[in-house]
């Protein structure tokens, strides 16, 4: 079975990948049937030959998830620089935010109850 996947190149701490067509039984950095482009996560550059991608898809090659995402970005004209990631909150930060929200809701409920009691006491007097 032929698979389109990433082949690691570059040096340690300066990783770059090539998008290649390989037999799925071959090693990650083994001999490739064809190179379709490259993907550099550090400089956020991506370049892929979409005509050859279409050919290999038509032949029945399977694609890894990462390669499919890279291809979709290249097709749509988006750059990896344009993709925004939401900042992840730690478990402690999430717990703190939930506790603050709960305390705020309880304070608002207590204030609403006091306002309702004050309105009820004022109504019979009038």
Question: What labels describe this entry?
Answer:
single chain, 126 residues, alpha+beta, S16 Ribosomal Protein, Chain: A, 5-stranded mixed sheet, 3 helices, 5 strands
List the helices and strands and how they pair.
Blueprint: E1 2-11, E2 14-23, E3 34-40, E4 45-48, H1 50-59, E5 62-63, H2 65-76, H3 91-125
Parallel strand pairs: 1-5
Antiparallel strand pairs: 1-2, 2-3, 3-4
Notes on the structure:
This protein has helices at 50-59, 65-76, 91-125, and strands at 2-11, 14-23, 34-40, 45-48, 62-63. It has two domains: 2-76, S16 Ribosomal Protein, Chain: A, CATH 3.30.1320; 86-126. β3 (34-40) and β4 form a beta hairpin. The model has no long low-confidence stretch (mean pLDDT 88). It has a five-stranded mixed sheet with strand order 4-3-2-1-5. It is α+β, with helices and mostly antiparallel strands.
Structural class category: alpha+beta
Order of SSEs:
EEEEHEHH
Main beta sheet, described? 5 strands, mixed
Work out the helicity level: 40-55%
Topology-level CATH name of the largest domain: S16 Ribosomal Protein, Chain: A
Output the number of helix runs.
3
**First-last Cα distance:** 87 Å
- Portion of residues in beta strands equals 25-35%
Uncertain runs are: none
């Amino acid at each position: 079975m032929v698979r389109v996947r990433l082949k690691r190149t570059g040096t340690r701490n300066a990783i770059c990948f090539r998008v290649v067509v390989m037999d799925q039984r071959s090693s990650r950095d083994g001999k490739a049937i064809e190179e379709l482009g490259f993907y550099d996560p550090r400089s956020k550059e991506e370049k892929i030959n979409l005509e050859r991608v279409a050919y290999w898809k038509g032949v029945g090659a399977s694609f890894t998830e990462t390669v499919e995402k890279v291809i979709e970005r290249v097709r749509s004209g988006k750059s990896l620089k344009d993709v925004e990631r939401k900042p992840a909150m730690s478990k402690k930060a999430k717990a703190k935010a939930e506790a603050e929200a709960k305390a705020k809701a309880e304070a608002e409920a207590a204030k609403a109850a006091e306002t309702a009691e004050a309105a009820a006491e004022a109504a019979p007097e009038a």
